[in-house]
Amino acid sequence: MNPEAIQRSFDGSGLRCTPQRYAVMAFLLEHNRHPTAAEIFEAVNRVDPRSSRATTYNNLRDLVKAGLVREVAIEGRAARFDAKGMQHHHFICDRCGNVEDIKWYDVPRPGPGSLGKRVLRECELIFRGLCTKCAPRRASR
Amino acid sequence: MNPEAIQRSFDGSGLRCTPQRYAVMAFLLEHNRHPTAAEIFEAVNRVDPRSSRATTYNNLRDLVKAGLVREVAIEGRAARFDAKGMQHHHFICDRCGNVEDIKWYDVPRPGPGSLGKRVLRECELIFRGLCTKCAPRRASR
DNA sequence: ACTGGTTTTTAGATTATGTCTAATGTGAGA
DNA sequence: TCTCACATTAGACATAATCTAAAAACCAGT
Q1: Domain co-membership, A16 together with A65
Q2: A124 interaction partners in chain B (CB closer than 8 Å)
Q3: Which of A74, A126, A135 sits opposite B126 (nearest CB)?
Q4: Residues A44 and A95 in one domain
Q5: Which of residues 57-86 of A touch strand D (CB under 7 A)?
Q6: Cβ contacts of A89 within 8 Å, gap of 6 or more
Q7: Residues B70, B94: one domain?
Q8: What CATH code is carried by the domain that includes residue B113?
């Protein structure tokens, strides 16, 4: 996604394109590392303009609410963030907690019988195990 | 699951069957409400014997490590716990954060091509939307 | 029953993560 | 230019969970 596209996605969600917000989005788009809020904060502050911690959290929240970014909660660790580019599934490493993308494929939805009156918005598949780096030393945590 | 079965499942994992640990497991088994650690702590302490907060957390961790209990991380909220009885999927409410069980059905696994050298342990499906209680007032958070 | 070693529990301090507050800054439209 | 809603900020605050160090419970072997 290029700068203008980021602009446009902000416009479409009624979000101003501030330098701080732009920096967060741009960082997420050019790293599919699924960083934590703390990592994003640090990264965008290694280059100007300076952004505060509160602003980083505010912007992440706004972007998630706008549907431009996905938040991934992980047991016992900080949440991770992920620009919603192409659809994909997630692989979460038991050992290091890193999140990696798995090529998207379609998932069968539950029958209306088991959903009842619930309103389904999305449906995500999460794989767990050991990532490429951790698999060799199949250690405990 | 009856008391002896709980005993046996503890034995099988090398965990002593202490009153505090038993209380946690029994509570999880008789409520499929997916309570938070705080709720479990409060609940087991409404009846004797008293269990401390640290012990509740310790025991939950032990049970998760032993594979008897599942932990479900939820964005912006406390983790929830779930005795692993029958296999099932999870529905997480966008509005109230409650977790509900969805009848299990088999999920296609990714091809070995997209997994690479990763070691797959499990594969869970998470549905999001509004639960039965929240669907009527389809509000924002 | 006593000993020694392991596991478990405990209260409270501590850490980690994220949110809130109140003041200040910024920019788009009248 | 004025105005007002939106953004940013530093630091206080809140919440969830973990850690620490000491005491207690438990078991196996004697």
Answers
A1: yes
A2: 125-126, 128
A3: A126
A4: no
A5: 58-59, 62, 76
A6: A101, A102, A103, A104, A105, A124, A125, A126, A127, B110
A7: no
A8: 3.30.1490
The ipTM, to two decimals, is 0.86
For B74-118, write each residue's pLDDT tens digit: 999 999 999 987 889 999 998 888 999 999 988 888 888 899 999
- A50's CB contacts (< 8 A; 6+ apart) are none
User: What confidence score (pLDDT) does residue A141 get?
Assistant: 39
Candidates A72, A123, A138; nearest CB to B127? A123
Domain coverage including residue A117: 86-141
Residue A83: per-residue pLDDT: 93
The answer as to whether B72 is a domain residue is yes
Band of pLDDT at residue B138, cut at 50, 70 and 90:
low
By Cβ distance, the residue of B74, B91, B132 closest to A73 is B74
Residue B24 lies in a domain: yes
- Tell which of A119, A131, A133, A141 to mutate to test the B interface (max B CBs under 10 Å): A119
Give the model's confidence band at A125: pLDDT under 50 very low, under 70 low, under 90 confident, else very high: very high
> Quick check: is B93 in a domain?
yes
Beta bridge partners of B102: B89
Count of residues in chain A? 141
- The pLDDT score that the predictor gives to residue B60 is 98
**Number of domains comprising chain B:** 2
Q: Is the same domain home to B40 and B66?
A: yes
Using alpha carbons, select from B136, B34, B37, B138 the residue that is nearest to residue B94. Answer: B138
Is residue B42's beta carbon less than 7 angstroms from any atom in nucleic acid strand D? no
Averaged confidence pLDDT in chain A: 91
Q: Do A129 and B119 touch (CB under 8 A)?
A: yes
Instruction: Return the structure tokens found at B136.
Output: 């009527």
Q: Give the distance, in angstroms, between residue B20 CA and nucleotide C9 C1'.
A: 9
